[in-house]
């Protein structure tokens, strides 16, 4: 009895499922299908494109049947090809530009401590300087004091020199009631060895980092020269020149006066050389 009931149930289930499936509503049609019918028409073709498309058949036909003008041009080109080529009239190529030199500005010039202008870099073998200055005057105690001639030096010397001259000028005013009118210099930049020797180290003049002072012209009319004044009498300026040497030792790294050697009997050599391991030792003679 139970098996018969199960068999009847199995026979009745598929028709019931089919009827239920027929009663399930279908989904709505996709919007895209209806939108395709009412699609917005595409814009007209651009005039340039229309012209090119209209000219295409003409171009094709002309290429198939060449005109007499094209055949004439072909004959002309073949005749010209048989002639020797004309010489080129193009100018020769310009040489490559040299590498750029980078220079730096000097604060002493920008602050008005010296009257100077920048010079092009100097490259002379192992000698030279990247940013040389042509100095013609210095400022000290509110005045511009000219040099006897324009000198070529570097920014370090241009920065230290005015402070030293200001001390010497103040000493002159305190002791002799006069001031410096002009500064007498000699050697500045010069590519050579120390003391003009044939061998040895390059002088710091070779790097525009040294100046040789010959003396001073004062406002009271006197001219004080290292020779003979340094080892002369007070009237010849001995005291002034000794003070100038001692004051220079606080502004420069090397000071060579007539007390140093026979090469400096008529000048006082000043430079910013490096002495000692830390470059803090001063050579003052």
Give an overview of the whole structure:
The protein has 285 residues and is α+β, with helices and mostly antiparallel strands. It has a domain at 107-284. It is built from 8 helices and 11 strands. It is elongated and about 150 Å long.
Overall morphology: elongated
- What share of the residues does DSSP label as strand, in percent? 15-25%
Query: Radius of gyration, Cα only, in angstroms?
Result: 49 Å
Distance between the termini: 139 Å
Order of helices and strands: HHHHHEEEEEHEEEHHEEE
Kindly report the average pLDDT value. 82
Count of β-strands? 11
Major β-sheet, in short?
6 strands, mixed
Question: How are the SSEs ordered, and which strands pair?
Answer:
Blueprint: H1 2-23, H2 31-37, H3 47-64, H4 68-82, H5 107-110, E1 114-118, E2 122-124, E3 127-129, E4 133-140, E5 143-153, H6 155-176, E6 180-185, E7 210-218, E8 223-225, H7 226-229, H8 238-248, E9 254-256, E10 268-271, E11 283-284
Parallel strand pairs: 9-11
Antiparallel strand pairs: 1-4, 2-3, 4-5, 6-7, 7-8, 7-10, 9-10
Helix pairs in contact: 6-8
Features:
alpha+beta; six-stranded mixed β-sheet; 20% strand; single chain
How do you describe this structure in short?
This protein has helices at residues 2-23, 31-37, 47-64, 68-82, 107-110, 155-176, 226-229, 238-248, and strands at residues 114-118, 122-124, 127-129, 133-140, 143-153, 180-185, 210-218, 223-225, 254-256, 268-271, 283-284. By secondary structure, it is of the alpha+beta class. It has a domain at 107-284.
């Amino acid at each position: 009895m139970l098996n018969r009931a199960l068999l009847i149930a199995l026979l009745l289930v598929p028709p019931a499922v089919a009827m239920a499936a027929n009663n399930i509503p279908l989904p709505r049609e996709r919007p895209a299908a209806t939108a395709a019918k009412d699609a917005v028409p595409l814009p007209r073709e651009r005039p340039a494109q229309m012209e090119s498309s209209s000219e295409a058949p003409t171009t094709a036909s002309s290429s198939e049947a060449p005109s007499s003008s094209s055949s004439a041009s072909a004959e002309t080109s073949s005749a010209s090809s048989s002639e020797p080529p004309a010489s080129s009239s193009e100018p020769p190529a310009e040489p490559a530009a040299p590498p750029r030199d980078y220079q730096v500005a000097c604060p002493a010039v920008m602050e008005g401590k010296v009257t100077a202008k920048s010079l092009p870099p100097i490259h002379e073998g192992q000698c030279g300087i990247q940013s040389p200055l042509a100095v013609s005057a210095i400022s000290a105690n509110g005045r511009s004091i000219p040099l006897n001639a324009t000198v070529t030096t570097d920014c370090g010397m241009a920065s230290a020199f005015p402070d030293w001259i200001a001390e010497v000028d103040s000493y002159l005013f305190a002791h002799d009631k006069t001031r410096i009118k002009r500064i007498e210099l000699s050697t500045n930049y010069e590519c050579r060895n120390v003391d003009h020797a044939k061998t040895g180290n390059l002088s710091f003049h070779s790097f525009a980092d040294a100046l040789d002072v010959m003396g001073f012209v004062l406002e009271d009319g006197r001219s004080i020269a290292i020779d003979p004044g340094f080892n002369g009498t007070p009237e010849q300026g001995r005291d002034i020149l000794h003070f100038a040497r001692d004051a220079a030792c606080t502004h420069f790294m090397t000071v060579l006066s007539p007390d140093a050697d026979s090469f400096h009997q008529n000048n006082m050599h000043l430079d910013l050389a490096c002495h000692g391991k830390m470059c803090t030792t001063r050579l003052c003679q």
